[in-house]
Amino acid sequence: MRVLTALPIHNEAAYVKSVLSELLTHTREVLAVDDGSNDATPNLLRGFPQVKVIRHPVNLGYGASLRSAFAFALQHGYDALATIDCDGQHQPSLIAQLVTALTTTSADIVSGSRYLSHHPGDARPPEDRRRINLNITQTLNQLFGWRLTDAFCGFKVYRREALERFDITENGYAMPLQLWVQAYRWNLRIHEEPVPLIYLEEARAFGGALDNPAIRLNHYLDVLRGELERQGLHHLLGRSEASLTP
Question: How many CB atoms lie under 10 A from the CB of residue 104?
Answer without folding.
Answer: 10
